[in-house]
Write a structure and sequence with these properties.
Layout: E1 3-7, E2 10-14, H1 20-26, E3 44-49, E4 53-54, E5 66-68, E6 72-73, E7 78-81
Parallel strand pairs: 1-7
Antiparallel strand pairs: 1-2, 3-5, 3-7, 4-6
This protein binds FE2/S2 (inorganic) cluster.
FE2/S2 (inorganic) cluster binds near residues 41 and 43.
Length: about 80
């Protein structure tokens, strides 16, 4: 069954093979980024629902409930809010 990613209240299809950042880019959703490998923290978003898997260890500081979109994927429906 296809998964979805909800961003700022709007649903999009989720490609589980791509990172969340790549999913945002594929839907032309604006998201800042810099290093794309978990160091800078620029790509952080708030995870409102669902669970993500890190493909790189996140080196950037994260507050509770935040995720780095450049180095996470998800196999389930997720809900994000961008800053
Ligand atoms: S773009 Fe740098 S941590 Fe994601």
């Amino acid at each position: 069954m296809s998964k979805k990613i909800t961003v700022n209240g709007i649903e999009y299809p989720l490609d589980t093979k791509k990172t969340l950042l790549e999913n945002l880019e594929a839907q032309a959703i604006h998201q800042e980024y810099h290093c794309r490998d978990g160091h800078c923290g620029v790509c952080r978003c708030r995870l409102i629902g669902g669970k993500v898997d890190y493909i790189n260890y996140p080196m950037a500081y994260l507050r509770d409930g935040e995720v780095l979109t450049c180095c996470t994927k998800s196999q389930q429906d997720i809900i994000l809010e961008t800053y």
